[in-house]
């Protein structure tokens, strides 16, 4: 019902035009032109036809921009894997898409100008500080962009253009040649026929002429709309390429990256693993939480100690996502004497941790209500993330441990209904979660209560798995972007390899010739 209404609201002018064309002919079919003539109703019928033609013409007029508003194509959403900055570039380009749809470029020069304008918009947004932002790409990047653009175009043609794979260019040239040679004759014959039919049956000829005019108007309006939408689709495709180009997304092939990952760990799934960092105060329960997650799985895990002193565990198990769990050292051990020394140590901590993972699990103990360190460092992380919209930021998830140690202390009979909060324990757990949410979390970040009493099965780990899996898509995008970002940094080793291969190729050319 609503769909029908919205279609009617958007396309009522088209409907009026169609009715204006169709109704008189339906009338003709019912009554017959001859009867109209006999009943002296032919003039009335012509008058009705003229009135409908006027209505159809009025419907094509644009009253105070209302039509543009009603018929505007809804904006196409940005690609989910883009960074906030790339999403902004897409939003900037929306004005261009609308302009192109309402007046599509009519010449190659106009297409070139529109393309340059879009590239400039994307480049300025993605490289605001560069002196020549439009030149911020490498030659292999632009070749890769062209390869993808042309590949997409080929796919579209093969799928959507009838006869695209059967009709050769020579066939088209032959048709064009025939038309140029014989088109004049054909057009002349058509005009002759139109004059002749006036002699044979004047009312019918007049009707057919009128219908031609009306239909011509309707089809040209429809054609303009199709033309505009096609131009917009092309512009959007081009803009996607431009954003990927200036976002350096063509610098590394995802397939190449995956091949490297398989080479590094043949037994692992062929995707960039999502890195989950566990931060929190000393004794908050970070290591216990990592163990609780690892303890859930049957497969063995590999453990690795990083130079920074963290321990990384690769979690690989049937039915669980491929994750690297990073158990970090507790916060709050820094006893710097001065504010400057503390600020410097915070900055070092942020530099080491802000971009090292795709999901942050902030572990806060329900029985350690002093959270200044957590708040200060998490805020510092958020500031670092906000100042780099060109990168994908990790999601944050808060976990409240030691739920079993809340009052009443002696009671521990999970599971608890935290929404209903019937018992005193459930109310305490809920209050602890609210306190952590207020102290540390932003509105859309989940808070999961957990209890890991030594010697007993951990409570509520399933809810944590659920929260992790809900953020997993975003975390995967972030993992891929982090890997791409690391790979596009300048590397001396790669340059040395290229120099070696280039010199070997030159040597071959000089001593053996091209075919060697
Ligand atoms: N009762 C109870 N004890 C817990 C819970 N979580 C952790 N513990 C205990 O708290 C102590 C500290 O836990 P850890 O997991 O080592 O804490 P951590 O955050 O890794 O500490 P650091 O590595 O020193 O920063 C251990 O004795 C755990 O058994 C919990 O939910 N309930
Ligand atoms: Mg620990």
Automatic annotation (TrEMBL):
Its domain of life reads: Bacteria
Which Pfam families would you find in this protein's record? MMR_HSR1
Alphabetized, the UniProt keywords read:
Membrane, Transmembrane, Transmembrane helix
Q: Which GO terms describe its biological process?
A: tRNA methylation; tRNA wobble uridine modification
**TM stretches of this protein:** 12-36, 42-61
| Cellular component aspect of the GO annotation | cytosol
Domain (G) ranges: 275-381
Supply the PANTHER family for this chain: TRNA MODIFICATION GTPASE GTPBP3, TRNA MODIFICATION GTPASE GTPBP3, MITOCHONDRIAL
**Stated name of the protein:** G domain-containing protein
Q: Name one GO molecular function term.
A: GTP binding
């Amino acid at each position: 019902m609503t769909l029908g209404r919205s279609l009617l609201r958007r396309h009522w002018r088209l409907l009026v035009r169609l009715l204006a064309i169709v109704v008189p002919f339906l009338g003709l079919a019912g009554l017959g032109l001859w009867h109209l003539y006999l009943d002296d109703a032919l003039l009335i019928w012509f008058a009705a036809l003229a009135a409908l033609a006027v209505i159809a013409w009025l419907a094509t007029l644009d009253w105070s921009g209302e039509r543009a508003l009603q018929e505007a194509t809804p904006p196409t959403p940005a690609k989910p894997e883009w960074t906030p900055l790339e999403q902004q570039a897409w939003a900037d380009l929306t004005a261009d898409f609308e302009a192109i749809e309402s007046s599509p470029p009519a010449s190659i020069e106009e297409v070139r100008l529109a393309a340059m304008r879009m590239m400039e918009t994307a480049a300025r947004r993605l490289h605001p500080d560069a002196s020549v932002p439009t030149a911020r790409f490498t030659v292999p990047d632009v070749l890769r962009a062209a390869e993808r653009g042309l590949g997409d175009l080929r796919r579209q043609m093969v799928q959507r253009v009838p006869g695209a794979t059967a009709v050769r260019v020579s066939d088209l040239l032959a048709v064009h040649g025939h038309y140029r040679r014989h088109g004049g004759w054909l057009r002349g014959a058509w005009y002759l026929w139109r004059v002749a039919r006036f002699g044979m049956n004047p009312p019918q000829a007049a009707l057919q002429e009128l219908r031609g005019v009306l239909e011509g108007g309707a089809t040209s309006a429809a054609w303009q709309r199709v033309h505009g939408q096609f131009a917009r689709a092309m512009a959007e495709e081009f803009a996607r390429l431009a954003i990927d180009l200036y976002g350096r997304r063509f610098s590394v092939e995802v397939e190449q990256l995956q091949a490297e990952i398989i080479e590094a760990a043949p037994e692992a799934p062929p995707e960039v693993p999502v890195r989950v960092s566990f931060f929190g105060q000393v004794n908050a329960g970070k290591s216990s939480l990592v163990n609780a997650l690892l303890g859930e799985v049957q497969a063995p895990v590999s453990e690795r100690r990083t130079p920074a002193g963290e321990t990384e565990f690769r979690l690989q198990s049937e039915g669980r996502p491929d994750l690297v769990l990073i158990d970090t050292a507790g916060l709050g051990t820094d006893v710097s004497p001065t504010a400057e020394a503390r600020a410097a140590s915070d900055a070092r901590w942020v530099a080491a941790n802000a971009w090292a993972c795709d999901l942050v699990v902030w572990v806060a103990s329900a029985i350690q209500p002093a959270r200044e360190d957590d708040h200060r460092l998490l805020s510092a992380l958020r500031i670092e993330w906000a100042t780099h919209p060109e990168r994908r930021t990790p999601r944050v998830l808060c976990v409240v441990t030691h739920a079993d140690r809340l009052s009443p202390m002696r009671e521990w009979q999970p599971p608890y209904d935290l929404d209903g909060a019937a018992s005193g324990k459930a109310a305490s757990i809920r209050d602890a979660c609210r306190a952590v949410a207020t102290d540390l979390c932003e509105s859309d970040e989940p808070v999961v209560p957990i209890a890991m009493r030594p010697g007993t099965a951990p409570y509520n780990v399933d809810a944590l798995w659920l929260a992790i899996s809900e953020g997993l898509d975003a975390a995967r995008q972030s993992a891929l972007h982090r890997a791409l970002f690391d790979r596009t940094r300048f590397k001396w080793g790669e340059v040395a390899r290229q120099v070696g291969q280039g010199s070997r190729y030159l040597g071959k050319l000089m001593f053996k010739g091209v075919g060697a």
